[in-house]
Model the fold of this input.
Amino acid sequence: MTKNMTQNITANSGHPRTYYMVVIDGAGKIEYINTNLAKTLHMEDYVGGSSNFFEYLQVAEVANLKSTLHNISIDKKQSLVETSLKNGRSHWIKWEINNLQNGVDTKGKYLCVGHEVIKKEESKNYFDISDEHYQAIAEDLSVGVVFSDAAGKVIAANKYAADIFKIEVQEIHREGAFYDVIESVEINNKVISLENYPHFKAVESGQTQSETVKITCYSGEKLWLICNCKPLINKEGTVHAVVTTMQDITTQKNLEEELIIEKLNQQRAIAEAIITAQEQERHNLGHELHDNVNQLLTTTKLYLEMLHPSTGNEFMVVSKAKELILKALTEIRNISKMSVMPKFYEKGLVDSINEVLEDINIIGKYYISFVHDDEAGIKISEGKKTALFRILQEQLKNIIKHSNAKTIKVKLSFDSKCITLSVKDDGVGFDTTSKSRGIGLSNIYDRTNLYKGTIMLNSAPGEGCQMLVTIPVDEKL
Done:
C-alpha cells in the first residue's frame, strides 16, 4: 500500500483497480476521505466535515445509498452497494459499507471501502463477459480493512481482514480477537513489541505508517502482510482512530523463500560436485605418486647401490644421493596417504581417524587421545564423512605447524540429529578476532557450510585452541 492509503489492486481478472475509502454519517457528511477518492472528485483541498458525499453522486444513486445506510443502521451488518460518481464522467464504484457502531467519535458513521468497476450497460462494449463474471469481478476486494480506535479496539472490519486471520467476521469486534491469534510480529526480521506496532506508531506520530510485517500465529502459520495505518485526527488535533489496510502477500513471500532455498540447494550441489571432483583428482594423484613416481625413485636407488665408488668423494656423493632419495620416498608416501581417501565402507569414519592419529603418535612428540561414540546405525553420507575427515586432517596440520602443543584431544560424538567433531590442543593459541583465515581454515569453513553445519573456534593467546564442527545427520541414505 502507498502512504496515502491508495493502491491499484489486481483482481482475479488481472486488471488493476483503484481503491477508494470514505467515512460518512447518515446525512452524507464526509468525516474522512482517502487521497485517491479526493483526487477523483477534485477535492484535493478537502477539510474534514466541509463536504457532503451525496453531492458527488448521480441523483438517481442518492436514494439507493441512503436506503442502504438506513438498513445497515438497523441490522448492523455489512452491505454491498453500487453507486455512480459524477466528476465530468461517470465512475461506477462497488462499495463495501460497515456501520461504525462502537466508539463515541464514530457512532452513527459508516466506513465505505470500494473499487471502480465498468458500468454494467457498457461492459459488453469492452469485454465479452457474462453478467455472472461481471459480478464475480465487482465483488472481489482483495484487501483487508480494519477501523479501530486509538487504543487498538476494533470498531469495524471487512470480511477479507477476518479471513486473513481465519476469524469469523462477527468475532472480529471482540476485544483481544487479534491478540488471541497473533503470537509475534516481525519487521525486518526483528520481533517488535506492542508499542512498535504500526497502529500505535501511527497514533503516536500522527503520521501514516507503512510496513511489511511477518506475523507468526499461535497455530504455527506464518503470514506476510503489507500494512498501511492511516491516523484519523479530530477537530482537537488528536488521533482518535486508525484505518488499517492489509494486503496478504504470504503466497508471494513463500514462493520467494522457496526460490531462495532452491538456489542455495543448487549452489550446494555444485559445490559438492566440485569438491567430489577435487577429491577424485587428489585420489588419482596419490595413486600416481605411489605407483609410478615412487617406483621410479626406488629403481634409481637400486642403480645407485650398484655403483662402486673408488674415492672418498665419490662415496660421499652416492651416499648423499641415496639419502635424498629415501627422504623423497618418505615424503611421497606421506603425500600419497594424505591424498588418497580411506574407503569408509570398509573401515568406517572412527577407524580412519584412529589411523591418522596413530601415524602422528609414532613421532612421539604429542600425547594424543581420541574419544568417540559408536557410529553403528548413524546415517551419514560419504560426502559428510569425507568432509569431517578432511577437516580433521587440516586442523591437525595447523596444530603441528603453528601451535607448539604437547597434547591433542579429539572427540567424535553422535546423536539423532548431528555429528560433532572436537579437536583441542594446549598450544600457544591465537586471537580469533584479529587472525585472518588462511587457506586451510577457509577450507574447513567451506566444507562445514557445504553441509549446513556450524563451526566454533575458541582460542586466545596462551590458552590453546578448540575447534567444534557440527554437521546434521542424514534423514535418509
User: Anything to note?
Assistant: The mean pLDDT is 78. The chain has four domains: 1-142, 157-248, 253-340, 344-477. Residues 1-142 form a domain with the Beta-Lactamase fold (CATH 3.30.450.20).
